[in-house]
Specification:
By secondary structure, this protein is α/β, with parallel strands linked by helices. It is 33% helix and 15% strand. The chain is built from ten helices and 15 strands. Strands 3-4-8-13 form a four-stranded parallel beta sheet, sandwiched between helices. Helix 1 packs across helix 7, helix 3 (84-104) packs parallel to helix 5 (175-194) and helix 8 crosses helix 10. The protein is globular and about 55 Å long.
Amino acid sequence: MVGGAGFIGSHVVDELVGAGRRVRVLDSLHPLAHSGQPPYLNPEAEYLWGDVRDPAAVAAALAGVEAISHQASMVGLGVDAGDMPDYVDHNCSGTAVLLRAMHEQGFAGPLVLASSMVIYGEGRFRCRRHGLVAPLPRAAERLAAAEYEASCPVCSSELQPEPVPESAPADPRSVYAATKLHQEHLCLVHARESQTPLISLRYHNVYGPRMPRDTPYAGVASIFRSALEAGRAPRVFEDGGQIRDFVHVGDVAHANRLALDADPALAGAFNIASGIPRTVGELAGTLATAIGGPAPEITGQFRLGDVRHVFASIDRARSELGYRPAVEFEDGVAEFATAPLRAGAAGVHS
């Protein structure tokens, strides 16, 4: 596994070890993400400390392996355009080095790639008059005027969001999103040329134990919890009505095992989510109640890289992977309210 010491990757390690698999991990323990070896590392796994961009480290990690889970990635929206080279270097160049090593070693697969729902940009929308349409990116002027909802590009009426299927066109709207799509494309090209089985899992908003804290690269659940632990109200951007799908990391880890065990003929992208959309404001309120902290503060602030609504259809994952999310939202958030988090730093890898 590449990237098995981070938030999601470490849970995938636990899932695989629990299923009786022999697991080797390559992770850089990047100083912007880790202050050292985290305490939750699974003692039954083998750990190699090296960078996915280092051909020698990757070659050593791949020797003798029969399946690869690629979880290594620099995540989140980041801070500003100054982050762009780091995102491209870690996510795209690192993936290219991995694929070259797979080619050189004659790796036959399978490969499971950790992808993301961010590649969709805004979600799937329907106009009452014009059917399915692709909304234009939200303009700063409209957001500043608290006009948050997507509108029809034809008649300007407000659109109704719908679950996004894997067949939806890609429309990345942040540097991170662009690099995740590029990862998918690089892996797909390699899979076609080598006949390597490839499954890309498009994670939606993953939360749970071991999330990084106190960093602008962390997920919104971690940011809310950090505020509440400090006695501050969680600050919710826009009006809190943004719809997402919050999926527990345990369900995501199980989806990875299902993908690694899938029939080699099964390929393509799969949404991995809970299947039950929630608003960002609902997450903040539920977490505040679980912790016993102050109610959320709706700020009206916005970021141009954010999207209004994006939530998943998990029909394909259910029918073809046998994926069944098991952690209820209220139970997962209650657990997350007191679960150990990873100390944050200036940046974070998944």
